[in-house]
Design goal:
The two termini are about 45 Å apart. The N terminus is likely disordered. This protein is about 20% helix and about 30% strand. The longest helix has 22 residues. By secondary structure, the chain is of the alpha+beta class. A hairpin with a 4-residue loop joins β36 and β37. The strands form 10 sheets. Strands 20, 21, 25, 26, 27, 28, 31, 32, 33 and 34 form a 10-stranded mixed sheet that branches. Strands 1-45-42-41-40-35 form a 6-stranded antiparallel sheet. Strands 14-13-16-11-19-22 form a 6-stranded antiparallel sheet, with no helix packed on it.
Length: about 900
């Protein structure tokens, strides 16, 4: 193909790249998707890398993985006493460790050699991973608590002193907690995690965390301090979700082993036992749901330092093990990731101040204040203000059921000790807020710097970026990401204030948005394990995961709990990793089998339907049956991948029968209309592959007409919001999808940000009276569609993980500039354009070891509509076709 003549294609080579970079280097070394992790429990960890190679047609022709216990010998002599794969002719950049059996508490070093496109060999830097307990019998500590009743409110403090008389080589702390904790070593907080360990079904699986504390231990006297919080384990606040009745509920407890390795090769283990001392202190009450109450007058100054007088403290009490499954927390932790200073502070009086941080977020605030002893200060967090300027929580406190006024919603309470400037920040709580009202029982003086907000969430690396000439697109992308991160706390949630629940539907509606923007596989693998913990023997899953028992009702059906199939399938598409599907295979099968038993004629109305629609209501049987098809299809494809031939034949047949049943009942083949023809009814079967191939254009045309009849506005709930843009973009109606996506009047995504929203909302109507959280993720598909519908970046199911990229960009006439960047497992993928004086310059980057097929949109000139691209950077000079030759769908009004 003569690229230059046909398309003005120029293969770009950067003249600014140094000669030393003109080679192939393996980089981005990850073990279990983490960089140099500590305390992993995987016996066969996954080792991954990608290539740094700016040359054209860059690829890995062969590789060799070496694993050793000696980093120096590995670097100098390729000494691999644990595993040496030898040179393998493969383009694969993930290997599952299959060497000598891994030992607990051992650090392993690994590197990769690769042979590039020219057969030249290069080597990576040395990476590492360190094993943890690996098996339950390796624990030495006992589970201890303070012996108090679960309704006792003050938090328990624990301490232990020990002496070190030798030079220390290394030290590791392994801590497992039922509840939440902060760990201190000689007065210093260990690590920068928040809200550890992650929330699980505590009576079935508990997580432990590993820390390197080598530099925190000193020769001579040392002290360990542990402060426990309730978290979801001991939910003392009362709300409609019944977590105060959870079967696991109890007073927080913990187990800890401190391994100290000395320079002389000997080892000590300091572990939890009854000799740990305990008492209560200043933390009077803590709730993951509502807030924290702290009395600074009762502070235990120096309680976590050596030499502290703990003679009035009590012995700890033994506690039974919360569950028989205790495993490493192998995911990106929750942290305070961003800091916000107040955009505005309003003084309503000398004892009432309102802070506006300009951004809705999940997190906490830190107060610095000087006041009289005994002064009571309340920090009330909310998303809205009353007309008088005070904080309004009426949109988010509707499910709180307090028995009295002692546990106000989203409110921290501090009692000052009156000794100079004091500082408070909650330890075991987070909230959803933009505004904070500070109310004091005595006059205080505050300024804009007195209160600082911290955006708290799972600290997953960002991998996707959108930038354009359209302010609505840019603001929507940012708002979507802020909403997503606000709802990622070791599991995906619906909102960070009213519920904090792991609603299944919200998560799978937004899974593509999540994965295009963030490297979240570690969080989702953990959450899928929660699914397996919660699944009933008959296959049923609850609406919210984890759950204390709520959510196994009649509506927890296929449109919501299909997370068990849809999320591992998307992880496979985005990462090319079969493990999530393998781990979930039996659970998916049980789920589909249950749906099949309950279906009638291969149809089902088991589900919640198109939740929070604008006005039109859609057939629940149509949408639920479509998700039944999706799950059966994913199951059949997974069976094929795993070599389960009988299952593949059975479930592929089932999927086809479901599809035929849906179309037989709901599709009018003459008119191309599903059911009553709502936007949701047209888009859901079209996007999910139910619509027969020869009917797709007709159904899409009718869908586009529906959108135009609404003035390019939405008329959908959550199911339609997931499907609508994709159904249009992928079936010849890209212009309609674009105009809908950038619409800024009601009802639309853009209407939210045009009216000042900084996150996504729970209701299309800004004046709605129910379903009115201002930080929700269930309508979050818009963030993923930008990469697909405009950037055109799609994974290829035949070559997952973006080994092969499908590029189907769309260039609207009135969008002058657009860039979509996605850092895949293979490296940077870029699709972007700029329009100048009628000329379109379109740029593509295909990462090393990957290929792409580019399909140019119908509205652009060019003879070749399908172009095969190898790795490298490409620039196309293009132009629009004359408007007269662009097909415009004619709609009957």
């Amino acid at each position: 193909m003569n690229r230059v003549l046909l398309l003005g294609l120029v293969l770009v080579k950067s003249v600014f790249v140094a000669v030393s970079q003109e080679r192939c280097v393996p980089v981005g070394m990850l073990c279990e998707y983490l960089s140099n992790p500590l305390g992993i429990d995987a016996l066969h960890p996954r080792l991954r890398w990608h290539l740094d190679d700016v040359r054209d047609k860059a690829m890995q022709k062969a590789c060799r993985v070496l694993v050793s216990t000696d980093s120096l010998k590995l670097a100098d002599k390729n000494y691999a006493d644990c595993w040496d794969t030898g040179k393998r002719k493969t383009e694969t950049m993930q290997f599952v460790y299959n060497g000598k059996k891994l030992l607990p508490f051992t650090k392993y070093f690994w590197k990769v050699e690769v042979w590039d496109k020219d057969g030249n060999k290069t080597s990576s830097d040395i990476a590492s991973f360190e094993t943890g307990m690996l098996e339950m019998h390796n624990w030495r500590g006992s589970w201890i608590s303070d012996g108090r009743d679960m309704d006792y409110k003050p938090a328990p403090y624990f301490r232990k002193e020990f002496v070190v008389n030798k030079s220390i080589y290394s030290a590791r702390a392994y801590i497992a907690v039922a509840g939440l904790y902060e760990l201190y070593m000689n007065g210093q907080k260990v690590g920068n995690h928040r809200l550890d360990p992650m929330y699980t079904r505590f009576d079935r699986r508990n997580l432990y965390v590993t820390y390197d504390v080598t530099k925190l231990i000193q020769e001579g006297k040392n002290a360990i301090g542990v402060l426990l919080g309730n978290g979801w384990y001991n939910h003392q606040s009362i709300a409609v979700w019944d977590f105060h009745h959870a079967p696991w509920r109890n007073r927080p407890a913990f187990c800890m082993d401190l391994h100290i390795m000395y320079a002389d090769g000997t080892k000590d283990i300091i572990c939890t036992d009854r000799d740990w001392r305990t008492r209560e202190g200043g933390l009077l009450f803590n709730s993951i749901y509502t807030g924290e109450h702290y009395d600074a007058q009762a502070e235990l100054d120096g309680w976590n330092l050596p030499g502290y007088d703990d003679s009035t403290w009590r012995e700890s009490s033994y506690r039974s093990v919360p569950s028989t499954c205790l495993t490493a927390q192998q995911l990106h932790p929750i942290r305070s990731v961003e800091t916000y200073v107040a955009r505005r502070m309003t003084s309503l009086s000398d004892s009432v101040y309102v802070f506006d941080f300009g951004q809705n977020m999940s997190g906490v605030t830190s107060l610095k204040v000087t006041g009289e002893k005994g002064t009571v200060i309340r920090l009330k967090h909310g998303e809205r203000l009353y007309s008088n300027g005070r904080v309004n929580t009426s949109n988010i406190d509707v499910y709180h059921r307090p028995v009295d006024d002692s546990d106000p919603f989203q409110t921290d309470i501090i009692i000052l000790k009156g000794q100079g400037e004091e500082e408070f920040m909650p330890k075991f709580n987070y909230k959803g807020f933009r505004y904070v009202e500070v109310i004091s029982s005595h006059p205080i003086k505050l300024n804009e710097r007195s209160l600082t907000a911290y955006f708290v969430h799972s600290d997953v690396p960002q991998v996707g970026f959108i930038q354009s000439s359209d302010t609505i697109i840019n603001r929507l992308w940012r708002a979507t990401n802020k909403a997503y991160l606000s709802n990622l706390m070791g599991y995906p949630t619906d909102c960070p204030q009213r519920e904090k629940n792991g609603w299944t539907g919200d998560a799978h509606f937004a899974i593509e948005t999540a994965l295009y923007n963030y490297d979240g596989i570690t969080v989702y693998e953990k959450w899928l394990a929660d699914h397996r913990d919660e699944q009933q023997p008959n296959g049923v899953l609850p609406d919210i995961i984890p759950t204390g028992g709520w959510g196994y009702g009649t509506d927890n059906g296929l449109d919501w709990t299909s997370t068990i199939a849809i999320i591992p399938w998307n992880l496979y598409l985005f990462y090319g990793d079969l493990k999530p599907l393998t781990d979930c295979y039996e659970a998916i099968k049980k789920y589909v089998d249950y749906a099949e038993r309950k279906s009638i004629g291969r149809l089902t109305d088991w589900g919640r339907g198109d939740w929070v629609p604008v006005k039109s209501h859609s057939s629940k049987e149509l949408t639920s049956s479509t998700y039944f098809y999706v799950d059966a299809k994913i199951l059949s494809e997974t069976a094929k991948l795993l070599g389960k031939k009988e299952d593949y034949l059975y479930y592929s047949k089932l999927a086809e029968e479901i599809k035929q049943a849906i179309n037989a009942k709901y599709l009018n083949y003459e008119t191309g209309v599903y059911a009553s023809g709502t936007q949701t009814e047209q888009s859901v079967p079209l996007m999910w592959g139910v619509t027969p191939e020869h009917m797709k254009r007709k159904v899409a045309h009718n869908l586009a007409c529906k959108v135009r009849e609404c003035g390019f506005h939405l008329d959908v709930g959550v199911l339609g919001a997931k499907a609508l843009l994709n159904a249009l973009s992928e079936n010849g109606e890209a212009e309609t999808a674009y105009r809908l996506a950038v619409q800024d009047t009601y009802p639309s995504w853009g209407n939210w940000v045009a009216n000042g929203a900084t996150t996504l909302l729970e209701n299309w109507d800004l004046n709605a009276t129910r379903d009115i959280s201002d930080n929700h993720m269930m309508f979050g598909e818009i963030g993923g569609w930008l990469y697909k519908g405009l950037g055109g970046i799609y994974p290829d199911v035949k070559f997952p993980g973006f080994k092969h990229i499908i590029l189907k960009p769309y260039v609207p006439r009135d969008l002058k500039q657009f860039e979509a960047t996605y850092h895949s497992s293979y490296g940077k993928i870029y699709s972007g354009w700029e329009q100048v004086n009628g000329k379109i310059t379109y740029k593509v980057i295909v990462p090393p070891n990957s290929t792409a097929t580019l399909y140019l949109p119908d509205n652009l000139s060019g003879d070749d509509k399908s172009i095969e691209l190898e790795s490298g950077t490409y620039i196309f000079d293009l132009k629009f076709k004359p408007k007269s030759v662009i097909r415009i769908s004619l709609c009957r009004t």
